[in-house]
Amino acid sequence: MDRVSTGSGSDLVSDQDAIFLTNFGLHNWTRSLPLPVLTRSKNDDRARWVQTMLTDEYGLPREVRSPWIAALSTFTAFLICGLVPLLPYLLGMDHSLVISVVLTGIVFAVIGSIKSRWSTSSWWHSGLTTLFVGAIAASLAYFAGVIVKQLVD
Q1: Nearest to 96 by CA among 104, 88, 108, 87
Q2: pLDDT at residue 151, rounded to an integer
Q3: Is residue 5 classed as helix, strand or coil in its secondary structure?
Q4: Which residues on neighbouring strands pair with residue 5, listed in sequence order?
Q5: Terminal Cα distance for the chain, rounded
Q6: What is residue 65's DSSP assignment?
Q7: With a threshold of 0.85, does the pTM exceed it?
Q8: Backbone phi, then psi, for 5, in 5-degree steps?
Q9: Does residue 25 have a pLDDT over 60?
Q10: Which spans in 29-95 are helix H?
């Protein structure tokens, strides 16, 4: 917290307000503007303040991205990553199950590590978490398939 003069003493400016003021180009705000003026600046341009908070606190982009590009990117990633566990079977490799499990684990860890760019977790923590969740989901899917096969046979 920084102190700002109000003329009759000093008040505290929160860290969030400090970020806001710096983003608005008020780099000398601690020396030049009293707290009531700073508060008015923030309240007068509410749309800009909300945009600043969304961008700086939540990491959202300033411009709206194309939903078509997002959809195509998601579909392509799903198609590529979804083929990985099937590749050993499609290629007729020996020990297909083991190779499939290892390759799928690598893909989960890589996806988690890449995901860390948009989170506060480290790349290795995010990678291991995604690997763990993916392993649980894959195990449940495998055993569901085993149960359905037994019911059908």
Answers
A1: 88
A2: 95
A3: strand
A4: 10
A5: 69
A6: P
A7: no
A8: -75, 135
A9: no
A10: 29-32, 35-44, 46-56, 67-83, 87-90
pLDDT given for residue 20 in this prediction: 62
Distances in Å between the alpha carbon of 120 and those of 6, 39, 40? 36, 30, 32
Q: How far apart are CA 53 and CA 60, in angstroms?
A: 9
**Token output for 117:** 């760019």
Helix-strand-coil split of the chain, %, nearest 5:
75, 5, 20
d(CA 95, CA 79): 23
For residue 153, give both structure tokens. 């046979």
Is the alpha carbon torsion for 45, 50, 55, 57 positive or negative? positive
For residue 13, list its beta bridge partners.
2
Amino acid at 128: L
Q: How far apart are CA 121 and CA 54, in angstroms?
A: 19
Distances, alpha carbon 89 to alpha carbons 38, 80, 100, in Å: 65, 15, 8
- What distance in Å separates the CA atoms of residue 63 and residue 60, rounded to the nearest whole number? 9
| Element containing residue 106 per DSSP (H, E) | helix 96-115
Cα separation of 58 and 23, whole Å?
15
Q: How far apart are CA 121 and CA 135, in angstroms?
A: 19
